């Protein structure tokens, strides 16, 4: 096993067991393995492959139900925010989420403040921070906590507010040829017809 594979395997365990995002998981894996801080890191595809392998080995009996619960919760928020053309991304979309994973919805708005106004109108508490968007610039992330009755715990739901025009490039396939995010219809199909 080379260093990158060691880091990917350790990061995968941290992603699944502690709910870390890939970047922080890779950095912590480097520290846990006692490697120099500038050790070459695996790319996210390698970490995702290691996450899938970890889930297959250690979580095969629980992960499908947890993923389904997260997708159903994502669908609830997508329906509530349908006017903002929501798209599900990240682990919940790609099928590697566990109960510790957060939900990432990308909204495509004509006016970036309209999503905030909608949350205020619905009486939803949220925090705002700037995060990198998929187009390279920064976008506002509206983070809320939403109770999942199925999981019996609160789940972080992050609404990344993009400009409406960004929707054009949002569905270009990623490096693995997959659609990187799914709209309401695609997520509804996943919920109604989960993979075996």
Provide tags for this entry.
alpha+beta; Beta Polymerase, domain 2; 196 residues
Structure notes:
The chain has seven helices and six strands; from the N terminus they run ααααβαβαββββα. By secondary structure, the chain is an alpha+beta fold. The protein folds into two domains: 3-58, no CATH class; 63-192, Beta Polymerase, domain 2 (2-Layer Sandwich). A six-stranded mixed β-sheet has the order 3-4-5-2-1-6. A hairpin with a 5-residue loop joins strand 3 (127-132) and strand 4 (138-148). Helix 1 (3-18) packs across helix 2. The longest helix has 18 residues, at 63-80. The protein is globular. The two termini are 31 Å apart. The model has no long low-confidence stretch (mean pLDDT 93).
Summarize the structure.
The chain is built from seven helices and six strands, in the order ααααβαβαββββα.
Count of folded domains: 2
Say what the CATH topology of the largest domain is: Beta Polymerase, domain 2
Assembly of the depicted chains: single chain
| Name given to the CATH architecture of the largest domain | 2-Layer Sandwich
Structural class: alpha+beta
Shape: globular
Arithmetic mean pLDDT = 93
How many E strands?
Answer: 6
Bin the helical content. Answer: 40-55%
Question: What is the secondary structure topology, with strand pairs?
Answer:
Blueprint: H1 3-18, H2 22-32, H3 44-58, H4 63-80, E1 87-89, H5 90-94, E2 103-109, H6 114-121, E3 127-132, E4 138-148, E5 153-163, E6 181-183, H7 184-192
Parallel strand pairs: 2-5
Antiparallel strand pairs: 1-2, 1-6, 3-4, 4-5
Helix pairs in contact: 1-2, 1-3, 4-7
């Amino acid at each position: 096993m080379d260093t990158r594979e060691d880091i990917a395997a350790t990061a995968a365990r941290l992603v699944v067991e502690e709910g870390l995002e890939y970047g922080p998981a890779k950095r912590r894996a480097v520290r846990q393995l006692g490697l120099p801080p500038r050790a070459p890191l695996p790319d996210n595809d390698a970490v995702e492959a290691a996450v899938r392998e970890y889930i297959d080995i250690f979580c095969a009996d629980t992960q499908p139900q947890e993923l389904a619960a997260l997708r159903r919760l994502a669908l609830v928020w997508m329906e509530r925010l349908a006017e903002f053309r929501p798209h599900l991304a990240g682990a919940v979309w790609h099928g590697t989420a566990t109960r510790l994973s957060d939900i990432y919805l990308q909204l495509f708005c004509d006016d970036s403040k309209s999503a905030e106004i909608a949350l205020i109108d619905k009486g939803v508490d949220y925090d705002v921070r700037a995060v990198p968007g998929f187009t390279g610039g920064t976008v506002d992330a509206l983070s809320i906590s939403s109770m999942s009755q199925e999981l019996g715990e609160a789940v972080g739901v992050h609404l990344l507010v993009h400009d409406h025009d960004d929707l054009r490039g949002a569905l270009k396939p990623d490096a693995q040829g997959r659609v990187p995010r799914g709209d309401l219809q695609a997520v509804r199909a996943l919920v109604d017809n989960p993979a075996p």
